[in-house]
Specification:
Blueprint (H helix, E strand, L loop, with lengths): L10 H60 L5 H26 L6
Helix pairs in contact: 1-2
């Protein structure tokens, strides 16, 4: 014959364990994937921003390095002009190459 659950000495512990287990299962199935997605989104945004920052700094360094290297052969104004022209030409060629590759898989 089943005993009265209110007189069972382990009733409170078992009920608490059941509630904690159920809440943990629900949390694992709902909140945990959302937390991982939010972390991935935040870290992805940070990585993209740092990547853009690194590219900009690299372009400034290349332009400045070209200016300093060309200042040995040209005066100040001409070395600035030639360094901008050289870096701009390289970037334009990279852009044209990427532009040509944009539909390479569609053909």
């Amino acid at each position: 014959m089943p005993a009265n659950p209110l007189t069972d000495p382990n009733w409170a512990d078992e009920t608490t364990d059941t509630v904690v287990r159920l809440v943990g299962n629900i949390r694992d199935k709902t909140t945990t994937p959302l937390v991982y997605a939010a972390r991935g989104l935040v870290f992805g945004i940070i990585a993209v921003l740092l990547g853009v920052f690194a590219v900009i700094i690299a372009l400034v360094m290349v332009t400045r390095g070209a200016h300093e290297a060309l200042s040995n052969w040209f005066d100040h104004e001409r070395s600035v002009y030639v360094s901008y022209l050289a870096v701009g030409t390289i970037l334009s060629l990279i852009g044209l190459w990427l532009f040509r590759k944009r539909n390479a898989n569609a053909s």
